[in-house]
Amino acid sequence: MKKLSPDEAFYENLTLGLGSVLNSVPRVSNIICEKREPCQKTQVMTWEQRHGVYLPEDMKKFYLSTDGLLLHWSYQYGVNDIRRVGYINIPHLVQITLLRENVESNVQHMANAANAAGAPIATCISDSSKRSSSDTSFSTNSSATIVSGSTSMSCTTVSASPSKDQWGHPLPIIGPKTKIFEFNMVNDVAKVCLIYDTTGSNTLKIYMLELNGQKWVFLADSFSEYLRMAIAHLGLPYWELCFSSCGLPSWTEQLFLLLAPHLLEEREERRARIVDPAPERPYNSLDANIFRFKFKAANNKNVNVKR
């Protein structure tokens, strides 16, 4: 067995031996883990001071060991068809930024659609109206604050069961002091976000924001749990979408079924998309009686013929 260098041993331990596991999977090749320099303490302190929050202890130790993580691998679909598909990306520290997105038009469109359908309407309160209205409450369980440019929008949605999602996991309680950071983009349909409840906090939770419906989906209670989930899913592309309402793209689901079908079975309860069984189709049927007897050709020697 080849002896690993200190750097190789570090990344092998960091990824819980994922490289060795992938090496044993048929058709998987070109497994590459990019080696990165660690962040300096001054870089971590600068990031924390800029954003007014503290990195959790596990996340801080991670970035003081390596400035992010990039592991990718390829899958051989055919003789001359090898494609890079596997991908685990923990961004550089400086790439973790406040979620800035022009959502005013999206929220207004959603409110108009809900009003037309007779559904609960989301009311949006800007910073100026917050200051002018002292009796406004921001402790509603299903509230969302999204920073757009220099304007902060607080959106409060009236819901029958606002505190939990359809899988029983708590929805983010987002108020005026909540900090939301973009961590990863998933197939241009969702964003993985770090959510701090208050400014100056060192406790975060990781959620996924579905861009199509501005819907929050719970992913993990901590950075370490999110990293373990990525490793457990073998870095399969867009694995976070297992827990979304839109589900996995068909080509990604085929990879799951080929390489790790057990992951879909374990997570099926948390997938909003219902996979319907194939409808019954007519098939040609054979009569089993034809296999019961073996007919022998008649032997002329044993045949008595009367003349």
Automatic annotation (TrEMBL):
Residues 38-229 form the Knr4/Smi1-like domain. PANTHER family: TUBULIN POLYGLUTAMYLASE COMPLEX SUBUNIT 2 (PTHR31854:SF2). This is Knr4/Smi1-like domain-containing protein. The lineage of its organism: Eukaryota, Metazoa, Ecdysozoa, Arthropoda, Hexapoda.
